[in-house]
Specification:
By secondary structure, this protein is of the alpha/beta class. It is built from 6 helices and 14 strands. The chain has a single domain, classed as Metallo-dependent phosphatases (Purple Acid Phosphatase, chain A, domain 2). The strands form 2 sheets. Strands 1, 2, 3, 4, 5, 12, 13 and 14 form an 8-stranded mixed beta sheet that branches. The chain has a 6-stranded mixed beta sheet with strand order 6-7-8-9-11-10, covered by helices on one side.
């Protein structure tokens, strides 16, 4: 099973870069299943319903979200009708949507789940991903050996610890949220592929996809401003996975594909 994971789409530039890079992805990284993280696709924070439908129509089999999963009301109110969108699994069972699902490919089934870290998030309260992990993986592995976890977390230590907690019990754990691609992709002794952060899809000459001067001003004034999107040097980042029939990872490769900015 070959899986392509597109790192977090940030703003209009992120959606644009995802669309423009798809042809090259298909030719260089032939995949059976495409996952796209889109927690910041709409306005740099959250995902609107129209963007969700568009990203899915472009070719994303599943879209993963993190702490911004309910920031856009139109999607939050309609999440039950969008099975291709996953919010974190380890939040209240009263919350709309689901955090894990088994999907069908042409010849196989693949499970995708999202877990949210607890360090640094104060607008969405989650339960411990470590207590949620064992039963989650046990449930999914009964249905398919191919299990991918998107761990949306801020602290490196929390991510690393969960990687080892999951090793041998799933195919891959892909870190997301920090929007900076790390160079530590590896396969752990138990056969689980991991990377601390897959990066971001959008403007690379930016601060997390946001316009540079607006972020500098925030640090000078203390007034948050996430409304100014950046377009300089758009790029798709992500990882390419090859998973064996036993569900263990055979390879993990970091990906960066630059695209031309619109005129």
């Amino acid at each position: 099973m070959r899986i392509f994971y597109a790192a977090e789409l940030v703003g209009k530039a992120g959606v644009y870069a995802f669309k423009k890079a798809l042809h090259e992805i298909k030719s260089r990284y032939p995949y059976d299943f495409l996952i796209a993280c889109a927690d910041g696709a709409t306005g740099g924070n959250g995902l609107g319903r129209s963007h969700a439908a568009y990203i899915h129509k472009l070719g994303a089999n599943v879209i993963t979200l993190g702490e911004c999963c309910f920031y856009k009301k139109d999607l939050a109110e309609d999440m039950e009708k969008t099975p291709y969108v996953l919010r974190p699994e380890n939040i209240s069972i009263e919350a709309p949507g689901i955090g894990a699902r088994v999907y069908k490919t042409e010849n196989e089934k693949i499970a995708v789940a999202v877990l949210l870290g607890q360090n640094g998030f104060n607008r969405l309260h989650s339960n411990s991903p470590f207590t949620a992990l064992p039963s989650l993986l046990e449930r999914l592995k009964k249905q398919t050996p191919y299990v991918i976890v998107d761990f949306h977390a801020q602290a490196t230590a929390e991510k690393k610890t969960l990687f080892y907690a999951a090793d041998g019990n799933c195919s891959a754990v892909i870190g997301s949220h920090t929007k900076v691609q790390t160079a530590d992709e590896t396969i752990l002794p138990g056969g689980t592929a991991v990377i601390t952060d897959a990066g971001r899809t959008g403007s690379i000459q930016s601060v997390g996809g946001c316009e540079i001067n607006s972020r500098i001003k925030e640090y000078l004034t203390g007034i948050p401003d996430w409304t100014r999107e950046a377009w300089d040097q758009p790029e798709l980042q992500g990882v390419y996975l090859d998973i064996g029939k036993d569900g263990k990872a055979l390879s993990i490769e970091r990906v960066r594909i630059a695209v031309e900015a619109p005129e």
